[in-house]
Amino acid sequence: MPALASSRDATPAAISVNGVHKKFDSGATSVQALTDVSFTVATGQFVTVVGPSDCGKSTLLQVLAGLTPASAGTVLLDGEPVTAPRPDKIGIVFQEAWLLPWKTALENVEFPLSLRGVRKAEQRPRAEAQLALVGLADAAGRYPHELSGGMKQRVAIARGLVQQPSVLLMDEPFASLDEQSRTRMGADLLGIWERTGRTIVFITHGLTEAIYLADVILVMASKPGRIVDRIPVPLARPRTVDMIGSEVFGKLRNRIWHLIAD
Amino acid sequence: MSSNRPTAWLVPACQLGVLALFAGLWEVSSRSGWVNPELLPPLSVVLLILWKLLRDPAFLGDLRVTTAETIVAYLIVAPTGLLLGFFIGERRWLYRATNPILQLLMATPKMIFLPIFILAFGIGFLEKVMFASMVGIFATVIAGIAAVQSVPQGLMRVATAFGATRLQIYTRIYFPAMIPIIIGGMRLGLIFTIFGVLLSEMYAASRGVGQTLFSWGEQTRLAELLAGVLLVVAITVTLDELMRFGERRSRRRRVEA
Q1: Which chain A residues are within 8 Å of B167, Cβ to Cβ?
Q2: Contact at 8 Å (CB) between A144 and A105?
């Protein structure tokens, strides 16, 4: 693991977004959700996208995931254009876990594999490995309603990782958790990231979370939704909760705050 | 739920108690002459007649006719209603267009259409089946619509993101998510179908349990009438409880995603 995030910039781009526009037309009115969004994410990098609630960051994730087509511009994943969902290459974790309530934690993790026709005998060990990775090996047989909010999100992360995607997209995954769980989940997510070496794009409206997790922060502003800055985080890895109180952290936080507020 | 498990036996005990009290009051009030035994024969007498009825070929024939009418009507009601409901529920514009009409028809007492059905189909098997289907189908159509609309959009978003095909979304998300509401709707559909069959038999028929009950009433053969009523109640309650059991079981794991 490199000590400094910036050294990751040298590796080839996993995601390359070029001049993406997204317009929503609903009858007479049309909303410009994204305007000329361009950036790259290096392989293995942890990028957070932070911005106010109506800046189009969730739309950006939908476009990255191939769930919504861009009105203009391209998204390249390992050099290939993304125009439809790519479950083999992209794992997704949403704000709500959206686990299938009639399936156990383990069966939920197996779900993406079963959709793609992976043999049952192969699904089980792969799903078990992912559940262990998120620290839920003991909860494999439990149903979603028997899990806490944080545990559900862990299952959702395991489900997102089960196909060994090169990229994990996360759309405010901890937004509906209490602060304690959110902090713990953030730390655990960094651990999972370091062990798996996945590229992660993490959308959030929390400045602290955005800085604490990221190699690079993309700051978005609204009306129209656009990227106003790309900020490398000069904090060493592994990150610790104590860093949140440091001067560097505080200055960075203020800088982003002004970018968003102005 | 499980939090008050120590007193869990209290509920069924109370229910049995109420039932026993009711049976006891019935028996005693009739035997002691508080109530005219001509109008309310004792429960024991009624049960004895019921036992005889269940061996009476004529009555068993009526039971067969009614059962056949109910089954055929229900075989129309359940699939047609649910599929129609799915079809409407999936299309916002169609739902918006048809919902007020459905609500209106749902609120209309269906029995006012009975004379029209008799004019159109006579008073035989076909008329019973058609009328009962009409009575029963609204519950299943509305259940079908509710079932489709109950499927959380988030589950479909997840499935789409993980590359589910349209068919997989139907079989892996839609169907299992809808099961509790489907069973609930099928249950209501069955109750309404039975109601429709009995009603049309009572109104005009040459055979069937409804017709027989009605004529016993007209002849004030109260013991037979009450025995028949008890039997119909027992059958419908049993069917209803069986379906409720299935509904509860399927719902248990769907408390919350």
Answers
A1: none
A2: yes
ipTM score: 0.84
- Residue A134 gets the label, from left (phi > 0), alpha (psi -120 to 50) or beta, of alpha
CATH among 1.10.3720.10, 3.90.190.20, 1.10.260.40, 3.30.9.10 for B41-256: 1.10.3720.10
Query: Using an 8 Å Cβ cutoff, are A227 and A235 in contact?
Result: no
Amino acid at A120: K
Domain boundaries along the sequence of chain B: 1-40, 41-256
Contact A94 B168 (CB under 8 A): no
Digits of tens for pLDDT over chain B (257 positions)? 445 566 778 888 999 999 999 999 999 998 888 888 888 899 988 999 999 999 999 999 999 999 999 999 999 999 999 999 999 998 999 999 999 999 898 888 998 999 999 999 998 899 999 999 999 999 999 999 999 998 988 999 899 999 999 899 989 998 888 988 899 999 999 999 999 999 999 998 888 999 999 999 999 888 899 999 999 999 999 999 998 888 888 776 654 43
Model-wide pTM > 0.95: no
Helix, strand, coil share (%) of chain B residues, nearest 5: 85, 0, 15
Which among B158, B253, B255 is the nearest to A94, CB-wise? B158
- B168 vs A contacts (CB less than 8 Å): 115
